[in-house]
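ok, trying the design again with the full structure, not the truncated one.
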């Protein structure tokens, strides 16, 4: 398990953010077509992410609130996701599927996503990650606030729900 502090916001200026990341020598990991299948579970969220770059079974718990929020994240990297997906679908049922194109960048321990989500639009995500407990929640919040200001993300653009919640509300 590791701690993430993350921000998700609607974003009509992805090109500006992309330029800011490039100016800061962000490590561009590539563009990933990701299918996130969310399963019906009694607590938290469980999703199977299938992509060209990232493939994980992810369980996380976080509050639904706008702005920076803490998530407790458990990751499992399956060697073969098709049979795992069939098993999870048969045992738990599918809640919703999120289809997105995601540009992935890193600066130190902070991960950035420029997302285009089918049926929802364009977004930016900022995830400050503490994998081993050496950074601490306070510093993670500070990092998120710094990038919120740098990217000129407005309060009204901050989202409290996940893409899955937004799709379920449609």
């Amino acid at each position: 398990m590791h701690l993430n502090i993350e921000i998700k916001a609607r974003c009509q200026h992805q090109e500006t953010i992309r330029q800011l990341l490039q100016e800061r020598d962000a490590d561009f990991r590539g563009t990933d077509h990701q299918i996130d299948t969310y399963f019906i579970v009694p607590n938290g969220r469980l999703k199977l992410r299938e992509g060209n770059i990232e493939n994980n079974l992810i369980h996380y718990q976080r509050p639904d609130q706008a702005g920076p929020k803490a998530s407790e994240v458990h990751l499992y990297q399956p060697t073969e996701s098709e049979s795992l997906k069939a098993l999870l679908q048969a045992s738990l049922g599918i809640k919703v599927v999120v289809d997105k194109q995601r540009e992935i960048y890193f600066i130190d321990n902070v991960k950035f996503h420029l997302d285009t989500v089918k049926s929802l639009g364009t977004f930016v995500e900022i995830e400050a990650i503490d994998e081993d407990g050496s950074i601490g929640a306070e510093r993670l919040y500070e990092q998120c606030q710094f990038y919120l200001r740098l990217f000129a993300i407005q309060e009204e653009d901050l989202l409290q729900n996940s893409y899955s919640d937004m799709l379920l509300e449609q």
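Keeping the full-length input from now on. Residues 2-169 form a domain with the Hypothetical Protein Pfu-838710-001 fold (CATH 2.40.320.10).
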